[in-house]
Structures are given as C-alpha cells and as structure tokens.
Amino acid sequence: MEDMKKRKMDEGSNNGSGETSTTQDYLRSLLDPLNKPQLVDLLSRLGSQYPSIAEEIKSLASADPVHRKLFVRGLAWNTTSETLCAAFQMHGEIEEGAVIYDKATGKSRGYGFITYKHMESAQSALGAPSRLIDSRMAVCNLACEGLTGASTTPDLAQRKLYIGGLSPEISSEMLLNFFGRYGDIEEGSVAYDKDTNESRGFGFVTYKTVEAAKKAIDDPHKLFGGRTIIVKLADSHKSKTVQMQLPAPMVPLQVPMGAGGYAQPGKAPVSSGALVGYPYPQTIASYPASSYPNPPVAPAPYPTQSQIPYAPVSSKKEPLGHSPTPPVGMGGYHPYYYPKQ
C-alpha cells in the first residue's frame, strides 16, 4: 500500500511540473504581442501588489551595471576620487567611483564615474543631478547616455548663459549664488585655466527653465564683484567667436569665359562672365613623389665633328688718296664728261 501511495505522489508531482511548464509557455504566448509600455505597466502593478515580484524586478534591474553607473562632468581640476565619492555616498552604497586623469599630464580631465551597488541608489542621485563639489557645480546622468543626457534638451540654447568680465576673485560658488536669484540653476561654473587653476575671467550658467534665463539677461550689464559683467546667451557668444575666426574673404574677379569655360584672349567671351574668387594667400598642395613616373633617359649625344682648317685670307689694304685708274662705267666703258659751256 505504501508503494502505491508513493507512486501516485510521484505521478502527481510529475504532472504538476508538466502543467507548470505548459502554463509558462501559455503566459509567454500571451505576453509576446504586448509592447513595452504595456509590460512596464503590468509589472509595476504586480510589483506593488506582491513584494516578492518587486524584489525580483529589483534584482534583475540591478544585475546590469548600465543602470547603476553615473557620468559626472563639470568637476574642478583639484577634485579627487575621494571627494567625488563623498559627494554621492548619501544616496547609497557605492561600488566604484573615480575621477579620470590625463595619462600624459597626470591632471584631471574634469569628469568621473560613480557606480552604485543598487539601481535605486542611482535613481535617487539622478533626482538631484546638480550639486556643488569643490565650489563647482557638477552634473550627473546615466553613463550610457554620455553627453546626450538631460542637459542636451532642445531649449538648451535658450537656458545657457555666457558670463563675461568676471573678477579673478570670483569663484564658481559666488557666481552660482549671484545668479541663483533669478531661478533654479542646473549647471554653472567659472572657467579656470588647466595649468594655473586661475580664473579666465568668464563662466557659464545653465538654468532649468527658459524663463529664469530671460530674467537674468533682462539687464545685460550687471555690477558683480566690483566690475560690470556681461550676460548673454552662450550661443550668441559662440557664433561671434566663430565669425571672428573665419578665413580671409574671397576677392571677386570678373573673368570673361570662352568656349569650354576657359578665358580666350583676343576673342569675345561666349558667356557674360563668371565671378571667380581667389583666397589670399593661396596654399598649394604638395605633390607626392610617387604620383608621376620618372622622366625618360635622354638619348646619347651625337658624335662631335672634326674641325676643317681653312687657309688664311690676307686682307689687301687700299692706298690712300685718289685711285690712279679712272672709274669704269657700265659695260666696261669709260664715262665721258661734257665741259661746262
């Protein structure tokens, strides 16, 4: 009897596993046509109702570091990996954090990375992407987004301002405190020299809204740090800089063109003319030595001819005075002159 009971229990367990696999296949066939928003909505509702499902979702999401790794830019040149981790450890346990340094110079490149142990810690840090680190406003976003993060929105050109004419004593923290009166700042800093770490006399401020940026530029000249500073859109300053760096203008020349597009002197041009621009100075590209074949070898010179000697000719000198012989006329006759009457 006991053997019969065990056999029935084994058969029941086998049927249960078979039914489970059949149920999973059936559920997969139902979920396969659903799009991503529908699946996200379904899992979020199930996770809120069943804690076990929520824990499974967290473990799957945190398994891939791409959802836990942050890219932090706008760091000061003196910011170290320790100070970077200290600024982000409030959101959760950090698995790895480092400032990136230039291999040749050994100096900071102004950005770094933070990798959290759990995905919810990264999401918490992204809730406040801007923060002051070593008196500079640093900004973070997911590392998989790179520089195409939240700051590269279509209205960025209307939110980012150029601040010129700053005093050398003005720090990034002072700059942010001064312009924070107009609205919430997303990113901002004074531009510092990499070698000397001294202020270059200008900086940038990016507001979270276009309205705050408009308030800041209503009065383009402001008194700050004992100096009158210039405030304008960063794009307008950039376009002016590019315009000043344009190459030399083209000199228009009226060249009459003949048939085939070439100027023919002495002939009337077929077309009315074409404006041809010549930049000054002109750069001539160097021709590689291998572009043309070597010139043919010149043929052997002709054999030299021997000089033929000629007998010297003696020049006969004419005697001075009148010729003793009378002049001979045409045909050998002597001329006859009539005496004067």
From TrEMBL:
InterPro entries: Nucleotide-bd_a/b_plait_sf (IPR012677), RBD_domain_sf (IPR035979), RRM2_NsCP33-like (IPR048289), RRM_dom (IPR000504), SLIRP/GR-RBP-like (IPR052462)
Bias (Polar residues) ranges: 12-24
Keywords: RNA-binding
Domain RRM: 68-168, 159-236
Positions with biased composition (Basic and acidic residues): 1-11
PROSITE patterns from the UniProt entry: RRM
Entry-linked SMART domains: RRM
Keyword set includes RNA-binding: yes
Gene3D superfamilies xref list: 3.30.70.330
Pfam families to which the protein is assigned, alphabetical: RRM_1
Disordered: annotated segments: 1-24
GO molecular function: RNA binding
Alphabetical list of PANTHER family matching this protein: HETEROGENEOUS NUCLEAR RIBONUCLEOPROTEIN 87F-RELATED
Name of the protein in its database record: RRM domain-containing protein
